[in-house]
What we know:
Number of helices of chain A: 12
Mean pLDDT of chain A: 90
Strand order of the largest sheet of chain B: 2-1-3
Number of domains of chain B: 2
Order of helices and strands of chain A: EHHHHHHHHHHHH
CATH architecture of the largest domain in chain B: 3-Layer(aba) Sandwich
CATH topology of the largest domain in chain B: Rossmann fold
CATH superfamily of the largest domain in chain B: P-loop containing nucleotide triphosphate hydrolases
Radius of gyration of chain A: 20 Å
Structural class of chain A: mainly alpha
Order of helices and strands of chain B: EHEHEEHHHEH
Largest sheet of chain A: none
Oligomer: heterodimer
Distance between the termini of chain B: 34 Å
Strand content of chain B: 15-25%
Number of strands of chain A: 1
Amino acid sequence: xxxxxxxxxxxxxxxxxxxxxxxxxxxxxxxxxxxxxxxxxxxxxxxxxxxxxxxxxxxxxxxxxxxxxxxxxxxxxxxxxxxxxxxxxxxxxxxxxxxxxxxxxxxxxxxxxxxxxxxxxxxxxxxxxxxxxxxxxxxxxxxxxxxxxxxxxxxxxxxxxxxxxxxxxxxxxxxxxxxxxxxxxxxxxxxxxxxxxxxxxxxxxxxxxxxxxxxxxxxxxxxxxxxxxxxxxxxxxxxxxxxxxxxxxxxxxxxxxxxxxxxxxxxxxxxx
Amino acid sequence: xxxxxxxxxxxxxxxxxxxxxxxxxxxxxxxxxxxxxxxxxxxxxxxxxxxxxxxxxxxxxxxxxxxxxxxxxxxxxxxxxxxxxxxxxxxxxxxxxxxxxxxxxxxxxxxxxxxxxxxxxxxxxxxxxxxxxxxxxxxxxxxxxxxxxxxxxxxxxxxxxxxxxxxxxxxxxxxxxxxxxxxxxxx
Lengths: 272, 187
């Protein structure tokens, strides 16, 4: 085995190297999940309780009080299906975005492909998703939602994939920016909070009367994720132009994020 | 026989900013897009044209004053930071111990930290499992294996970290400030 250490080489994804270090994905994810619920009485139940109470609050105030329409679904099911994906995005982007800074000590002392850290952050968020999906299945049964298996198997995973792709894309981009410009420590929470309002989690896109507003929502990659995911349970005509814009935006995030991260990662240790 | 490490004309440059602002921020970077900043930059060579060979079986010590560039050289060898120029040819797996217990997490137990630290240092899970009993034995903290690391004394933490590192089987081992533990604990 012979290899060279040189000044920054040409840009590549480094899949081969990531494969070599594949066990670290597991260990970092495992570490973060363990640490997250250490010294708590309720433990993993928190992963379920948080979205559950969010759903209850949204259902009471937006569903009951404000009578927000919900595309033929009971409002709690509607909002929970959105929240499931939204939580992957918000916790994934937040923790991935801060991951390089919070792991700075390690980055300065040992080498491993840096990309493993933001990937693990998304995997942790995905773990929480799979915990809370138990409640969602319960709700589907409780509200007697009619499900076409084939449709669900097609749309639910595709929504989930888009969600992970855009979470990971934006997360890595922010992680790389954050280590250079600590301004992003303040931008990230603000960004995530504002994106919730332009994602159809609480309301359906159909209540937007202005075309302009619809296009703004479509620029958000989470529009496609939530819409596709929900299509597994409801019959709503697809707005293909909005969906395509949103998918395009999601993959743009992924490519930009990965490109910028790989381009700057060799200097992370000098900047951290 | 070919050397296991060939260090060829390695240099590492840093920019020293002479201004009150010591860290980057977005506003300033944007501002400098429009006007040239008035800061002066000085190029500082932490390492300047270093070359040497290491053969299999060699033990090499690097001695120097503070700021001489010892750690920078080791960081380059460990791939943590790239050299500004020159290259290094390696013919073996490198393990680097620049810090005692890299990746240790205070909330995790001793057992969990052995696995975490071991895998961060580049051991495979099966390797750690195979050596687990020996690591525990060597560390002498068997009784507290399931206690969170935050409750360990600093001495116990050091011993645990050292025990994991002792089972690395890489061809090249880079060690900084590590061996003083030998003296501290009469290992």
